Amino acid sequence: xxxxxxxxxxxxxxxxxxxxxxxxxxxxxxxxxxxxxxxxxxxxxxxxxxxxxxxxxxxxxxxxxxxxxxxxxxxxxxxxxxxxxxxxxxxxxxxxxxxxxxxxxxxxxxxxxxxxxxxxxxxxxxxxxxxxxxxxxxxxxxxxxxxxxxxxxxxxxxxxxxxxxxxxxxxxxxxxxxxxxxxxxxxxxxxxxxxxxxxxxxxxxxxxxxxxxxxxxxxxxxxxxxxxxxxxxxxxxxxxxxxx
Length: 244
Prior knowledge:
globular, 10 helices, two-stranded antiparallel sheet, Rossmann fold, 6-stranded parallel β-sheet, alpha/beta, 52% helix
């Protein structure tokens, strides 16, 4: 695997570094073949947003922190791309919330699950954290879904009341909502089914969300009323204003 060769002075150095992290994860067997396609689709929307966190996205992230703090059984649910790009931050967030992390992927194979759980476990040990990592022994199925992607852990997603699930698939987001769960989604496409169907949508890039969410969960945050449409419209308005 080639070394990362981009010059730090490159204006898009961070984006190039994230691509390289995905290349490494792909090489390690952590990602599906479509992972880079999904990432590229997100990058396109991030260009439109100006590759920065909007005011509405930061506001949504703050509300997400409050909901996770207020939850009885919060769970952080990670797929391959999020694990590859933001494992350390997500582990630190889970540690502050005292909640588990469940690896739950769309294209589920035993090989990918093992690679992802091993990687996350290694990062946990390196950080010296005691976060419980779930996913290797699923014992529950999400109602309304079929096949391996319905599999989950009862003491993770199954019994949770608030699910933080970055980069989620649209119909699985809908299935979780039908289970009466509060679903927090991170999606750079404000028009996706996940963004439209979530209880709370953060239209932002996952590593920026991770950093902001970690900042917020370190202190108690008061819950506030909101309309999710405000955050969808905020992202669309921001994109429109940039090109008028």
